[in-house]
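Dear support,

Our group has been running a series of protein-ligand predictions, and this particular one with succinic acid is the one our PI (initials K.S.) wants archived with full inputs and outputs. We had some confusion internally about which version of the output was final, so please treat the block below as the authoritative record. The input we submitted was:
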Amino acid sequence: MTGSPGAPALPCSLLAPPPSWAIDADVVVVGSGVAGLTVALNCAADGQRTVMVTKAQLDDGSTRWAQGGIAAALGDGDTPGQHSADTLVAGAGLCDEEAVRTLVTEGPAAVRRLIASGARFDTSATGEIELTREGGHHRRRIAHAGGDATGAEISRALVEAVQAAGIETIENALALDLLKDAEGRTAGVTLHVMGEGQHDGVGAVHAPAVVLATGGIGQIFSATTNPAVSTGDGVALALRAGAEVSDLEFVQFHPTVLYLGAGAEGQQPLISEAVRGEGAHLVDADGVRFMTGQHELGELAPRDIVAKGIMRRMREQNTAHMYLDGRHFGAAMWEHRFPTILEACRSHGIDPVTEPVPVSPAAHYASGGIRTDLHGRTTVPGLYACGEAACTGVHGANRLASNSLLEGLVFAERIARAARRDGAPSRAARPVPVPPPALPPPPLPAPEARREIQRIMTRGAGVLRSGESLARAAGELEALTPAKPAEPGTDAWETANLHLVARVLVAAARHRTETRGCHWREDHPERDDAVWRRHLIVGLRPSGAGPALDIRTTDSTAFPPIHAVAPEET
Ligand code: SIN
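Confirmed final output from the archive:
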């Protein structure tokens, strides 16, 4: 099906000036979270000339904000099979089972390699890795570091390893568009660097392999746990390059984000699920534990169920938040186990030791993204995606808590091997100029449109959606296309990325006329396995008026093969 007939054309590029400088590499990795850093380390260790490109500083990605931890079957009596069972249940019938099997079986060894490379996890007095619980897990399976600073520790260890390996890194660089050769294969990426160093302004890294590990899309909503850099740059770049995305409608809203008032915008402080894992209770305005009886795991039900439970109770009581009560932990436990959260709450005038913490859901994680096979390959030859930017099929309709750091590790290692097998180190990149489009492309949106996009998405495509709210959001997003172009620059390019991702997400959410996982349609409140136990795949296809949305459904929960792959390697 072709989406939104008659809608304004979608962009095929960010309309940046031509590159004024270029460097060569075998592999360029865009993004410096757990996924990007791990791909880069593995490619460099394999002898591939590797360049890392990151939008801010090397340690500024989403990974360092991850609190809870990394899930893997590391504990006595735990098995990959049990981890798989919990992942499949949380994914609400839509996980790709082969992808989940890969994650849970390769996960424990990947975590041990991470530890061997210098990451320090919290251990017991006897030296065993301490494991906690989070929503959807039937047992303690989450390794953590610094109490609630797991991502920061993983980021520290990997950044140090990248620096020790001498991997060339370009910081403050926004990746713009993919370069291709005459056969349509990847030949590098253009980028804009804000710096005064060797590379400045618009340039290019020529490489036969480009890995997009750009993280999430949370900034398309007004309130999110994601940092300011999470503007969906990789997903938008991949779409413009002709790659497919999948499951974009499944945005996970974290149930317990510190409530800072109705008008709070941008990145909000997360209150980790591990706080509930250690025994804190969700209570309503009357102090009643409202999740009891809603699910066998109560407050530790999968995240979508807890977020819905909170939203329902907020509606019933006509309030803007619920409370998380961990007063019974006492000061010592808060300080030892959750120092980051304690500090964040206290900096906003709330003391979790003596009072319940006001919490409400906020956008947290994109379960979908750029469609890949089990080796990170996208539908464009030579273009790979990893981590939150990718959709491997592992998360289905709702990611199981703390599976994302693990996914970043496991699939990053696979991409490094695939890039070698696909010939990255032996193939010269020969980019050809992009032919001008038949019709003028849509102008860049004004940077001021960003807040409007966020408001539209929060209102129309947030935790609770309906056909009506989504249709309104689609119309409002289309109307944002300006009559005259904004000046090219980081703000305008990021806003263009947010705009494109928002339009694709809304189109997918309109198409999926059921409620499943974290996609909650008020007008279709039931899960419809007969019709919808399948994925939506979206791409931009050429049309007379420029690229148009193309939406199709898979036949089952398994993804069709990526045709760019040599058959013996699928
Ligand atoms: C949390 O600590 O609650 C977040 C962990 C995750 O998103 O996996």
